Amino acid sequence: MKQKIWKWASLLPLSLVLLLSGCSENMLVMRPKGPVAKTQYDLILWSIGFMLLIIVVVFVLFTVVLIRYREKPGMENYEPEEEGNTLLEIVWTAIPILIVTALAIPTVKATFALEKPTKEKVEPITIHVTAANWKWIFSYPDQNIETVNYVNIPVDVPVKFKLTSVGPMNSFWVPQLGGQKYAMDGMETELFLEADEPGSYMGRSANFSGEGFTHMEFEVVAQTQKEFNKWVKEAQSTAPKLSETKYETILKPGLVGRMTFSNTHLEWIDHSKQNSHHAGEADEQARLCNPLEGNGIVVE
Amino acid sequence: MGANHHHETFPWKHIVGFILSLVLTFIALWVALSSGWTIKAILGVIVTLAVLQAALQLFMFMHMTESDSGRVQTINMLYSFFIAVVVVAGSIWVMWFVL
Amino acid sequence: MKWSEFFVTGEPLIYAADVAIVLTVIGIVFVLTYFKKWKWLWDEWLTTVDHKKIGVMYIISAVLMLFRGGVDALLMRAQLTAPNMKFLNSEHYNEIFTTHGTIMILFMAMPFIIGLMNIVVPLQIGARDVAYPYLNALSFWLFFVGAMLFNISFVIGGSPNAGWTSYFPLAGNEFSPGVGNNYYAVALQISGIGTLMTGINFLVTILKMRAPGMTLMRMPMFTWTILITCVLIIFAFPVLTVALALMTFDRLFDTQFFTMANGGMSMLWANLFWIWGHPEVYIVILPSFGIFSEVVSTFARKRLFGYKAMVYSIVGIAFLSFIVWVHHFFTMGAGAAVNSVFSITTMAIAVPTGVKIFNWLFTLRKGKIRFTTAMLWSLAFIPNFVIGGVTGVMLAMAAADYQYHNSYFLIAHFHYVLIAGTVFACFAGLHYWYPKMFGHILNERLGKWTFWLFMIGFNICFFPMYFLGLMGMTRRMYTYSEGLGWTPLNVVASVGAVLMGIGFIVLCYNIYYSARYGERDMTGDPWDGRTLEWATSSPVAHYNFAITPEVKDLDAYWEMKKSGKGFEIDEEKLKPIHMPSNSGRPFLISIAFFFAGFGLVFKWFWLAIIATIFIALGLILRSFDDDDGYYISVDEIKRTERLSGKGA
Amino acid sequence: MAEAAHQYDETMPLEYRTEESRLNILGFWIFLGAEVVLFATLFATYLVLFQRTGSGPTTSDLFEIKDVMIETLLLLTSSFTCGLAVFEMRRRRLSGLLTWLLVTLLLGAGFITFEIREFIHYVHEGATIQTSAFLSSFFVLVGTHGAHVSLGICWMILIIIQLLQRGFTPRTARKVFIVSLYWHFLDVVWIFIFTLVYLTGMVM
Ligand code: HEA
Ligand code: HEA
Ligand code: CUA
Ligand SMILES: [Cu+2]
């Protein structure tokens, strides 16, 4: 029995070490590439420290108790009786309160900080994000560009994502740049992110939205300001115009590849306004959103 | 205890309760429609009046505190009102940003 | 509607299920007929109002549902083992995680706990039965038909597929046009009503029917946790009732609560769902804490350390559980103030829970620990649950949760608390109270095999998921591509799941084996127990206690034994015992509920209306029912007591 | 329940005389606690949605104070007469009990009639349960209350029949008492509907 418990107890820390060393490459959350993700990363590390401490204390106590107080031969007349111990109980109420406080303060600070742009001096760039079944549409109102399933951003510039959705809720998540926020129909949520380093970052929907949800990935390409400007120019001059009919076909349930347009759908519709596209056209909407009537989902 | 109840010959308690509830209702009506106060003040007052009137029903008509379970019944009602407030106020607060 | 739409078609898996169901039904009918057991089934089970039998039926249903939910889990793990698997397509995967989550929480964990509480609570407080035996039967049958209704969706009409949380607008008509989500709304409603009635029933039972001398502060800890759980049920389930009703209206009558048009608000669903949903997870964990308390103190042979603090901490947890729900949607944008407040209330729950953990550890300290199977489950709970709990606190940190939300980190958290908490407790309770239910002990050797297989498998399965979450793997993905580095950990997880499956099979075998060869429990007190249920014979006489025991202290039976007498039955003091009569009505009313529900699911309103008339009829008959029950004579009690070796 | 089910305690009102009755009354109180939360959820829903009228009418377009006041007074009075019924019961006057129960029942029926008229009126104006989130939540909240009142009426009829058949017994007395709790409770709910739905709707 004794060995078994030891073996088992050693399993967890061991696997922890293995996992941390072997897979850290892929642990996107632990490899932040921007100030938002960095804030969260610091908070996570801070909390992991306390959690490990708690786990160690409990595990050590547990093991010691189990080994020392097993029933052994010769204990027949041992009649343990004990009611409690107020002092001890105060200790293990007080210490958790302190730990929780130590966790709560930075949490509240970070939570408030993440509502604001990451930099004060630099004017943020605004990008509207529309989640639709099952693709991500990005609109740059100032640049007058619209992209599908990928988004280019300049590094070191705060990006203000304005999120909304046509249909089911989705969640906009780019682990290496920062935590997620929901995109919901008929309303708008705001998420500030920023990249420190040029590179390509995986983004995906984190909230289940139906059949094609698994494939709702997008790429965030962080570029230097110069490259970004170049891309904007190029897109503005070479990309086709988005027409309303084209836009409707994009909205149809299904998967699409990447696209770029030199205007945005915001010109004629803003899904974040309640009922902007629904009033009186519920049937139309039902037709659009009903997966059975759409062209079906294309899955590899 | 409700035991004293059966010795009474005239339902004083009920009549007083009824008159009070009418009075409270009409005050609420006047406050809402004719007082001309600010919306906040009106809402505050009429909600308070409603709570008063609910308490009135519970004590005057429903004999909440009687029987050997009176305490449990009272705690139960108070707690359910607490949860009710949490649900109503909480929901409004949480979704305020979209309302 | 065409028949081809009515029955789910076109899937080998489902045809296999069809065949299995038909064969099982034929098999059951055949066996019952062949052995002439119909009358027995009706008299002894379908019409029973005995809390012990109702409890057994709850547990049997729960184990069946554990099997169903477990098969779902294994199917999901099979699909996720390798990248780009073609085993399940998206539609099927979506249905499977939805039914897995719903069944495991509502039709496995809850009824398992309710089953144990049915069997144990009246015994622990020295009562003859619950406050409302008839209602208790109705509660069970409502739960049961709700569960059956939910399960047949698999072969008739199609399963719900919007997740156990069924967020709108996805769960609305626009995006889920089939009947699957109607099943969700209606089946949960029916069994939820049953649960609410159970809550009221047991609250009154515990408050009013305790043996003389058993003050609140002398109640066994399990009974305490049930008392508080009932409070949670009573105040949380009405919220679910309303949420599901609104969902039903939206889906069947085109109302606009959660729709995207005309002012509807999908966030409101999430809000209502979690106002119920968070207390719900404590509804399944508090009784588990109670079970662990009983088992730990019995096998450490010590009184529970810090009994009072244990009581206050459950009250504290229950209170807090109603003011934390927003932590399930920190990412919906309610703002920093809202998130901060709910962050702090959530983290606060760590404090009373920690008190409990340390009190258990100190109950063990200086004890005389015996490692029975029930004890192993309870011991394993402590370290495993702490892992789940502290990662819960990490989730509670709003700003950090933006990174964990809906990722496998979350999946790992809640399986750690649900399995190491609730499932371990159910297994501990099952092994511990098994002799009370069936009169024999579950084989310890097989029990330990189950334990080690399941417990190790559990860690292998879910520990890697924390890291999958940090790697960016989100929940509810039916597949993933190569090159993300997720494959090895997913393989590991699936291996763990298989181990758990094997553990479960060993458990089932153990039930069969012990029924045939298991050690009979002649004393009624096989574990040298501390609370009153061990003062009865095993299995328990249908009237429970021949005379009502008098309670002088916490751990009443332990005190009786220590004073040298045990629980003696003085034949002179026996009086006739009043018992409630059996009734077939709860069962029949519930069948009517089934048809009403089925009618609603398919919008066959004529069926729903006819069935509702039957329900009303049943209730009216009940109202005019003058049955006062019957008395068991002193002679019969004497005979029973002597047979069980308890009488003088 | 046990033997105690037949222990009489002469000092108590009839409805509390048996253990079974005491358990049932307490259970019903607890059920009412659950009902409070049920209605609170409906109120929360209504208050979150009532300004989301879509393209449909708003509160001030619809509500008319006269109808509402009639309903309110009918229900308030019925709660009073229901109290009188229990008062008569405690004085052991069957005829008084039956009379006041009947009056209560009629007032309740009057309330329901006016409510149905009100609903029909709204529907004629194009305000149906499907029109907007506001109206869905309005009809479901007020309708749930109305359904409770209708159920209460049916229940009272059953009890009147039983009283006529069996006269005063601990069982019938308990049933009267419980239905009276239910009835008063519905009045409590109505007070909040009156305040938070109608008055608030006319103010905003
Ligand atoms: C039995 C079920 C159960 C239990 C007991 C818990 C317990 C806890 N849960 Fe969990 N939870 C779930 C079931 C459960 N949860 C489920 C099913 C979901 C997901 C639903 C879904 O989305 O599908 C979920 C999701 C969930 C979320 C949402 C995350 C998200 O969606 O992004 C959060 C966030 O705060 C959370 C937090 C907590 C906390 C703080 C506790 C605490 O109660 C834990 C307290 C325990 C301890 C902390 C350990 C012991 C304490 C000590 C040793 C003392 C010292 C410790 C400290 C000072 C930290 N849970
Ligand atoms: C008490 C609750 C409970 C329990 C016990 C479990 C048990 C298990 N769960 Fe569960 N799970 C949930 C509650 C629970 N789960 C919830 C609420 C969700 C969220 C759903 C949602 O997103 O909506 C979820 C989601 C969930 C997922 C995520 C799916 C996704 O998001 O894509 C996964 C993935 O691995 C998983 C796995 C498992 C496994 C392997 C087990 C194992 O412990 C199971 C053990 C196995 C058995 C007991 C098998 C027994 C059967 C056999 C041995 C028979 C073999 C025979 C044949 C195959 C014919 N669960
Ligand atoms: Cu918005 Cu469909
Ligand atoms: Cu929670």
TrEMBL record, chain A:
Spans through the membrane: 43-67, 87-108
Gene Ontology, cellular component aspect: plasma membrane
Keywords: Cell membrane, Electron transport, Membrane, Oxidoreductase, Respiratory chain, Signal, Transmembrane, Transmembrane helix, Transport
Reaction catalyzed: 2 a quinol + O2 = 2 a quinone + 2 H2O
Compartment annotation: Cell membrane
InterPro entries with a match to the protein in the record: CcO_II, CcO_II-like_C, Cupredoxin, CuRO_UO_II, Cyt_c_oxidase_su2_TM_dom, Cyt_c_oxidase_su2_TM_sf, Cyt_o_ubiquinol_oxidase_su2, QoxA
Coiled coil: none
EC number per UniProt: 1.10.3.-
Domain of life according to the entry: Bacteria
Task of the protein: Catalyzes quinol oxidation with the concomitant reduction of oxygen to water. Subunit II transfers the electrons from a quinol to the binuclear center of the catalytic subunit I.
Family from the record: Belongs to the cytochrome c oxidase subunit 2 family.
Name this polypeptide is given: Quinol oxidase subunit 2
Organism the protein comes from: Anoxybacteroides rupiense
Classification lineage: Bacteria, Bacillati, Bacillota, Bacilli, Bacillales
Designated gene of the protein: qoxA
UniProtKB/TrEMBL annotation, chain B:
Chemical reaction(s) catalysed: 2 a quinol + O2 = 2 a quinone + 2 H2O
Membrane topology reported for the UniProt record: Multi-pass membrane protein
Function description: Catalyzes quinol oxidation with the concomitant reduction of oxygen to water.
GO biological process, one term: ATP synthesis coupled electron transport
UniProt key word Membrane: yes
Organism of this sequence: Anoxybacteroides rupiense
Pfam families: COX4_pro (PF03626)
Name assigned to this protein: Quinol oxidase subunit 4
Alphabetized GO MF terms: oxidoreductase activity, acting on diphenols and related substances as donors, oxygen as acceptor
TrEMBL record, chain C:
Top-level EC class as recorded in UniProt: translocase
Reactions catalysed: 2 a quinol + O2 = 2 a quinone + 2 H2O; 4 Fe(II)-[cytochrome c] + O2 + 8 H(+)(in) = 4 Fe(III)-[cytochrome c] + 2 H2O + 4 H(+)(out)
Domain Cytochrome oxidase subunit I profile: residue ranges: 36-552
Primary localization: membrane
Domain of life of the organism encoding this protein: Bacteria
Cofactor(s) needed for function: ferriheme a; Cu cation
Record localization: Cell membrane
Free-text function comment from the UniProt entry: Cytochrome c oxidase is the component of the respiratory chain that catalyzes the reduction of oxygen to water. Subunits 1-3 form the functional core of the enzyme complex. CO I is the catalytic subunit of the enzyme. Electrons originating in cytochrome c are transferred via the copper A center of subunit 2 and heme A of subunit 1 to the bimetallic center formed by heme A3 and copper B.
Protein name: Cytochrome c oxidase subunit 1
Organism name: Anoxybacteroides rupiense
From TrEMBL, chain D:
GO function term, MF aspect, one: oxidoreductase activity
Primary location group: membrane
GO biological process: aerobic electron transport chain; ATP synthesis coupled electron transport
Pfam families named among the record's database cross-references: COX3
Enzyme Commission (EC) number: 1.10.3.-
InterPro entries xrefs: Cyt_c/ubiquinol_Oxase_su3, Cyt_c_oxidase-like_su3, Cyt_c_oxidase_su3-like_sf, Cyt_c_oxidase_su3_a-hlx, QoxC, Ubiquinol_oxase_su3_dom
One of the record's GO cellular component terms: plasma membrane
Listed PANTHER family: CYTOCHROME BO(3) UBIQUINOL OXIDASE SUBUNIT 3 (PTHR11403:SF2), CYTOCHROME C OXIDASE SUBUNIT III (PTHR11403)
Name listed for the protein in its UniProt record: Quinol oxidase subunit 3
